Amino acid sequence: xxxxxxxxxxxxxxxxxxxxxxxxxxxxxxxxxxxxxxxxxxxxxxxxxxxxxxxxxxxxxxxxxxxxxxxxxxxxxxxxxxxxxxxxxxxxxxxxxxxxxxxxxxxxxxxxxxxxxxxxxxxxxxxxxxxxxxxxxxxxxxxxxxxxxxxxxxxxxxxxxxxxxxxxxxxxxxxxxxxxxxxxxxxxxxxxxxxxxxxxxxxxxxxxxxxxxxxxxxxxxxxxxxxxxxxxxxxxxxxxxxxxxxxxxxxxxxxxxxxxxxxxxxxxxxxxxxxxxxxxxxxxxxxxxxxxxxxxxxxxxxxxxxxxxxxxxxxxxxxxxxxxxxxxxxxxxxxxxxxxxxxxxxxxxxxxxxxxxxxxxxxxxxxxxxxxxxxxxxxxxxxxxxxxxxxxxxxxxxxxxxxxxxxxxxxxxxx
Length: 415
Hints:
By secondary structure, the protein is mainly alpha-helical. It contains 19 helices and six strands. The strands form two sheets. The chain has a four-stranded parallel sheet with strand order 3-2-4-5. The protein starts with a strand and ends in a 7-residue tail after the last helix.
């Protein structure tokens, strides 16, 4: 039985000595939250200058201004999101260098990927890692998603990759800073991650919303067509496939729910796997996780504000998904309900593979059984999510998602 974890100090956190030192350090760092500062830091850090198309600068300017507008973001929160943007800019520079050195990567073909899309906290990560245990498929380990292109590919020793070493050092610091996040969403460097880190190299994702209060950025992102950014993602995937196989991908991102049309146009022969879960469980889990992280990231932890923001954001995500759902051809669509996935992992996999014309052979079955045995649900403890922490009116919440429950007959987890 997994250990039950109740975060007693969610709203009024008692920081550890390490957490307090990290938060104090953040206040000593003077940052210029501008696109120019991001660009200059990236260029100086790795000695490359060419970003390719610079149409991303408009997006980066709007994003950095939106981050700058967030007055509740503490110094360590600003430093974290600033360093993320610098890393994405560095990755973009390295990608441009790669394209010049290996133009033949363009000949790569991405065929019949399995693409998982579903609400955050709805089993997408477990499902992704389970399918990725099938060694016939290509996926993205977290360490590689952080830095997809090495400094010098020609001299790279796969058994001694500095990108992986750096990711493990960062993970060690992560565990010291936010120990309970391992029980909510473990970011182990070897776990299989979503491709949103690659999309962030083109500076057009919903990822910043997880790290700061950026409504200006959210509105800008939502109103703009994303097809070019999805094509940019596919180009990166071709490059990664060129560097190392296999050549059949399993991918996932909750963001895809609100970007079905650009996703379909970019990957027209994909199998689209959609996970479903009660949005109250989703928002409650999300708000708890973010409120816990806010003890460092922000000056004040406001659980109800987090809940309300993600209540609205998940509603937007599902409204856009519901509108475009029927555009996915039935033969390419596989619906997976959270409760069914938890009860029968391999039953869900069989349905997905049948849509993808991929045989669940004995080797793949054994690989998945091994993954299941080593990754029991809540193996790092089960964080208890309480409605009382967020002053939620359950009936009013459910009314706001009636369109989703009626359309997809999703099970309500709260009576």
